[in-house]
Amino acid sequence: MSALTIGCIVFMLVFGSAMLAMAIQPMLPEHHLSAESKDVVKLGVAVIATMSALVVSLLLASAKGSFDARNREYTQMSANIILLDRLLSHYGPDTKGVRDLLRRSTFDAVDQIRYSQNFQLQILEPAATTGQSIYIQIVQLSPQNELQRSLRGEALRVAVALSETRWLLFDQRARSSIPMPFLVALVFWLSIIFGSFGLYAPRNAMVIATFCVCALSLSVAIFLILELDHPFQGLIRVSSAPLESAITQLGK
Length: 252
What we know:
By secondary structure, the chain is mainly alpha-helical. It has helices at 3-24, 35-91, 96-115, 131-139, 146-171, 180-200, 205-228, 241-249.
């Protein structure tokens, strides 16, 4: 289910609970709407509102942390690509083939990120890329002196690190850092809060518009949290700038 769909569902549930409460308000006995009852309801809603605020903070921190981690891994992968190309360049002309392979794989990754509307990291999947071929070609190099042996060993280390980063990115493609029970509980609590508001609110257009704007704001907040949780698709996405920058450095 997409973040936009979930955001729309949240809006309908939260705003609908307020409208439902306003609809049943005239049907309640008078003592249910007394000042004493209203005070008790306010105390209960205050407790739920506090828990809701804590859950929103947890969800936002979790989603932001996940987004930042993917961004760091992505940037690190770009840095390793540049470093690997530099090491191969210093090794000598024997690495021309593997350097061309590295450049082509980087171009493919940039194109996938830049033009795909639903990027799912297939291009970064180690089994689906030229990463293994790059590693094998480096292993097959025949160093002629101590410098080349040292460069070959360092290039193998960077190639392994690059492959590990690809695996990390690929492994996280379908995982969510947001526990679904937290999200369900949050929506339930928000519905209760808005229902309590509608239960004692006057029935006029200004109140309804206020409920609508507040519910929309909450649904947008949840939408943004879910967007942060999926950094390679949707509106908030990891930028392809690090890889594009890496491409400009390759082959020099």
